[in-house]
Model the fold of this input.
Amino acid sequence: MKFYKAVSIFLTAAVLLTDCAKTESIKTQPHEFDAHLKGEEILTGPESGYVVADEKQSGEDPEETVTEMVSEYYSFEPHVYSEKLSEIRDDNYWTSLYNLIDAVRSGEDTFECCDEETYHLLLDGITMNHLYPIACMFITEYSGDDKPAFENGIGRIEYAISKEEFEDRKIKFEEDIEEILRQTVRTDYSDFEKCMALYEYMCYNFTYEYEENPMGDNEGSTYHTIKDRTGICCELGSAYAYLLLQCGVDALEIQSNDDIYHAWTYVTINGEGYHCDPTWGLTEKGDPIRLWYFMETEQARTNEGFDMTTLDVPLYLDVNLHFPENISFPADDDTFSSAWSSTYDSIDSENNTLFCTDFFTDEKYEIKYDI
Done:
């Protein structure tokens, strides 16, 4: 089927990413993310030994009264959204996508869809892999009889497993996502703090998958990676992106297809783009999180050997597996450049300060952020 062919192309390309793993990691518990919120004292300034890195001025009055936010946890969100993806996908795409997700979650066999091309796009496997991973390998275009799969604004759905089995897998998947979010982020975190918290969680709780064919039958890549906490670079990049989308941070998996085949996550916060690489951040037992590949600029990735003019984003593929021309993923904000040779210490969320230690010199840095 066209569905399986598209997924096969996607996953075959992923297997070629042999340069992904920088270190073999093991599963362990995440460090305390926010010492300040846990009541621990955080020293700043000369007494702490931390050097304040160059910071950009936000223009905010430090005396301005800040409205206190109630700390809450995120629930599973079936309708994730990317403003960046909306540069090439219109409202009809998103409405049709959400109709499909709602139909699958309810065990229905049809859904309303704006046109036939969007129907094929939503059911090619790639879209579900990134925007509702549990459905990636378990639904496809209907082919059970001679009736058209799409007609008069109605698309038909075919299930690869029984609806009862899908329902059971769906419940476990959504509960797992919710538990990850409950362990890592709260609604009063800034987008940067969500990125840091989920990056730390992935670095300590996910591993690189060295087996050639780790997935069981009918298990799509992002679903498999989140369920089993292991994957290769494209799977880890898409898993990190999906977790960020769950808590409202715009993120997409991005791939380099030049001399170095590799994939990571492109994050957009307040209109600024950043490159985050959870694969190269995977951390060995007893080691601190390395921030070398976290919140990077385009130039930083270029310095690491990537040709940033050859980037691909799976969700940007059309039904013929072609990418649109002149796509751009800028990343110029170097606020976090001091962290790129450092390891993570802690965050003071009330004072918007990231604490880290230079890996080579042991110099301690305070990095102010306003995102």
